[in-house]
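Retry 2 of 3 after timeout on previous attempt. Resubmitting structure tokens to design endpoint.
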């Protein structure tokens, strides 16, 4: 069964309101095992809403419309649905009474315009409103269906869960189409989207050639890396989970150390897990990032167990006097390693992680903007430094630098564990 989502409201097209309703309903439809191949947005124009509805019904079994059920002149979703159904609107006195009682309970008289919210296309079934004034609608169009829901998010969520989802499930069961759609996101850092696509291309081709297999898609997420989304459709949740488990293992084996987590795992939580598991503490020395790395780390619950603190050594003389960096150029690998050593010493940590570089827009010490150097000092082990050349403006370079430094530490810790096994 395929269901399309249609969001109504000129304010959506103008960018004045972000359409969170469609995203939420898409997620709920997937969890219910109902395919949703298209989402549309349309302004408050009856002819265009009618066109959008007819287009949706031509390619889907049902449409969930959100918005345009209010009392004002531009709330015309009911009118458009009635036109598509080729039936008139009839005012329902019970709905009028219910709206009037709602106003009365607040010590107010119902404006005459609210009566429009009681107009129902002939043949449609109202969905009683419990949180506001606008009732929803279940509207048969031949053997297909249109649902109309208010655009207010909390009203929509309540009505969708109470009336729309059960009705859709009943239709799916009647058609013998019960299923579960589930997704899992493998999170990576250090590879481009095209590089990941090339690496996984043979696996994707194998999946495409096998009916019932999971699918793989990519989502570039800027400073949070590239996400590899695995989606499986199965008869029940256990089978879907088994398909995801198997495919996650395949993807992780192919991608290797670029994978830092799954679903909600962040880079900082991945680093935190390794530190906590090994009983190690971390101290930072930050220059160009100005505390961004520390800010990410302290957002992880339990950070006080393994995070000692950060020295924001933005000025060169702070690097010299506080961290013990030898006087001279500070955008060098030697300086980054010395900063990491100083952070470990000053903060009493097992590991020191340091960042120096040039965020831009101008050069520093003859070094080009976007150059970032990360140093790592681990007690009882050899110090390390790595140079990154990062793209973007000043803010993007700083953000990329923060996650790149954490990723370097993550890989270093993972390598040490692998070496000692």
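Retry 2 succeeded. Sequence:
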């Amino acid at each position: 069964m395929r269901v399309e989502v249609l969001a109504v409201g000129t304010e959506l097209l103008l960018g004045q309101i972000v359409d969170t309703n469609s995203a939420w309903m898409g997620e709920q439809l997937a969890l219910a095992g109902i395919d949703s191949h298209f989402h549309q947005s349309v302004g408050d124009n009856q002819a265009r809403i009618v066109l959008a509805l007819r287009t949706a019904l031509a390619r889907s079994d049902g449409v969930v419309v959100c918005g345009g059920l209010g009392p004002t002149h531009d709330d015309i979703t009911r009118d458009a649905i009635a036109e598509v159904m080729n039936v008139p609107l009839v005012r329902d006195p019970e709905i009028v009474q219910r709206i009037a009682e709602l106003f009365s309970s607040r010590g107010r008289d119902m404006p005459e315009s609210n009566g429009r919210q009681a107009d129902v296309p002939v043949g449609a079934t109202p969905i009683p409103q419990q949180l506001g004034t606008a009732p929803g609608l279940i509207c048969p169009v031949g053997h297909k269906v249109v649902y109309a829901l208010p655009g207010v998010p909390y009203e929509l969520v309540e009505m969708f869960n109470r009336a729309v989802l059960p009705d859709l499930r009943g239709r799916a069961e009647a058609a013998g189409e019960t299923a579960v759609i589930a997704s899992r996101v493998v999170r990576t850092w250090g590879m481009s989207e095209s590089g990941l696509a090339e690496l996984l291309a043979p696996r994707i081709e194998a999946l495409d050639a096998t009916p019932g297999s999971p699918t793989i898609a990519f989502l570039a997420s800027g400073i949070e890396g590239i996400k590899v989304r695995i989606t499986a459709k199965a008869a029940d949740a256990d089978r879907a989970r088994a398909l995801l488990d198997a495919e996650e293992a395949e993807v992780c084996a192919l991608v290797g150390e670029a994978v830092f987590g799954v679903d909600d795992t962040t880079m900082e939580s991945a680093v935190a897990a390794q530190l906590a598991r090994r009983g190690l503490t971390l101290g930072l020395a930050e220059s160009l990032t100005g505390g961004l790395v520390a800010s990410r780390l302290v957002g992880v619950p339990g950070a006080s167990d393994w995070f000692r603190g950060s020295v924001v050594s933005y000025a060169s003389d702070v690097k010299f006097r506080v961290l013990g960096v030898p006087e001279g150029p500070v955008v060098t690998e030697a300086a980054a390693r010395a900063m990491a050593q100083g952070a470990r010493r000053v903060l009493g940590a097992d590991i020191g992680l340091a960042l120096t570089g040039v965020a831009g827009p101008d050069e520093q010490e003859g070094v080009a903007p976007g150059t970032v150097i990360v140093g790592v000092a681990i007690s009882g082990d050899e110090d390390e430094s790595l140079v990154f050349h990062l793209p973007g403006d000043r803010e993007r370079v700083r953000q990329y630098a923060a996650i790149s430094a954490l990723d370097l530490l993550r890989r270093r810790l993972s390598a040490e564990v692998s070496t000692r096994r």
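Attempt log closed. The chain has a mean pLDDT of 95.
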